[in-house]
């Protein structure tokens, strides 16, 4: 209790410092300007129609040409009217402005996140690991062969499944399933942190045809997990594009605003004002354990491993033991065509992946038993 009180006092001191800084800024300068003029809107009707028709390029759609013309006409009207969220309802209790209209889809995602959080803190429920396959390759589309990453994930899953629930998130589905998409982060946080909502409210945007955003399902899966294990290849010294899209879209979990009514949707002026009054940067995924396994064939595995560990640590997740963090090369500078055979022969790497899973589960169990990290009582003087 003394430690908790001390930490609460330190946190309040930091909030007071940030608030005083904001007051000083407000006293010495004009409100920050919202800079405009980068992009142009709207498209011409001809260009809009050209892009919309690409969806119906297949000659099999010819029989429905008149219906398609009508659909495109409605889509054009909605685009011009900027009907981002055509179905809304009042925010209700728990929001700063209960009468503000919020997207039904956003509220549904929020409700799933809240249910996942309740499940996550339930002490009697089994431990849950979110196991992420970061590769873009699978055998149902162009590559014609499963990824080595997926095989490593299956080793980890077999190990973890002996004593906990495993939720497998396969990022390769972005490249092989109809309608499976993660849209890019729009970087609202760089305008002002409160403009970045938790969960993300940028999507869906029906007026732009930006629908079926997979993140509405992925957010609750992260929240429900006690531990997260990322197994991924390195692509050109970086994370695979699907994995990176998810990483960017998780920025709202690191300081995001859980109440869009405070910014009345996407009002940059309100968001800047709110941040300058002092923002507490809530860490919505803090306290979960993590493991990272990166593999490559020539270069870059260590670079990506460090990037992923730094990212997860910044979000206040807790690294499991040293065995849980791993970067290795499979078939180093050997032909791609025989890379699966190289993995077959690398039994040491296979066991290291199992050990990473064991280490993660050990950390999860320690956290659930009440173990606190050495810096758990320390207040972050730079919470941004």
Structural class by sheet pairing and helices: alpha/beta
By CATH, the topology of the largest domain is: Rossmann fold
Low-confidence stretches: 1-7
Q: What's the helical proportion of residues? A: 40-55%
Question: Could you say how many structural domains there are in total?
Answer: 3
Number of extended strands: 8
- State the major sheet: 6 strands, parallel
Q: What's the CATH H-level superfamily name of the largest domain?
A: Flavodoxin domain
- Tally of individual helices: 11
Assigned CATH architecture of the largest domain: 3-Layer(aba) Sandwich
- Oligomeric state: single chain
Apparent shape? globular
What percentage of amino acids are in beta strands?
5-15%
What's the order of the H and E elements?
HHHEEHEHEHEHHEHEEHH
Q: What is the CA–CA distance across the termini?
A: 27 Å
Radius of gyration: 23 Å
């Amino acid at each position: 209790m003394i430690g908790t009180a001390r930490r609460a006092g330190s946190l309040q001191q930091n909030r007071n410092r940030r608030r005083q800084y904001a007051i000083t800024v407000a006293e010495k300068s004009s409100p920050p300007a919202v800079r405009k003029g980068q992009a142009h809107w709207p498209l011409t009707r001809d260009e809009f129609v050209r892009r919309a028709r690409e969806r119906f390029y297949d000659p099999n759609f010819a029989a429905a040409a008149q219906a398609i013309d009508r659909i495109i006409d409605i889509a054009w009207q909605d685009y011009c009217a900027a009907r981002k969220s055509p179905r809304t309802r009042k925010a209700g209790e728990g929001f700063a402005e209960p009468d503000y209209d919020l997207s039904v889809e956003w509220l549904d995602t929020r409700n799933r996140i809240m249910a996942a959080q309740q499940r996550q803190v339930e002490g009697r429920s089994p431990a849950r690991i979110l196991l992420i396959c970061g590769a873009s390759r699978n055998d149902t589309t162009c590559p014609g062969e499963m990824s080595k990453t997926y095989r490593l994930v299956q080793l980890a899953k077999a190990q973890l499944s002996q004593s906990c629930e495993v939720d497998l998130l396969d990022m390769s589905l972005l490249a092989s399933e109809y309608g499976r998409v993660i849209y890019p982060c729009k970087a609202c946080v760089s305008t002002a942190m409160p403009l970045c909502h938790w969960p993300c409210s940028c999507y869906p945007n029906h007026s732009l045809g930006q629908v079926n955003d997979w993140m509405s399902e992925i957010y609750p899966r992260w929240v429900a997990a006690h531990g997260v294990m990322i197994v991924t290849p390195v692509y050109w010294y970086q994370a695979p594009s699907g994995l990176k899209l998810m990483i960017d879209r998780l920025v709202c979990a690191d300081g995001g605003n859980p109440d869009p009514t405070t910014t009345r949707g996407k009002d940059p002026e309100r968001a800047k004002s709110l941040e300058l009054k002092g923002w507490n940067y809530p860490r919505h995924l803090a306290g979960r354990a993590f493991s990272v396994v990166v593999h490559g064939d020539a270069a870059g595995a260590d670079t990506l491993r460090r990037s992923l560990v730094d990212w997860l640590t910044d979000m206040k997740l807790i690294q499991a033991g040293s065995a849980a963090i791993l970067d290795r090369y499979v078939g180093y500078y050997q032909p791609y065509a025989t890379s699966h055979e190289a993995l077959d022969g690398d039994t040491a790497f296979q066991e290291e992946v199992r050990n990473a899973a064991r280490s993660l589960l050990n950390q999860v169990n320690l956290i659930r038993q009440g173990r606190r990290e050495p810096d758990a009582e320390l207040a972050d003087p730079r919470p941004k």
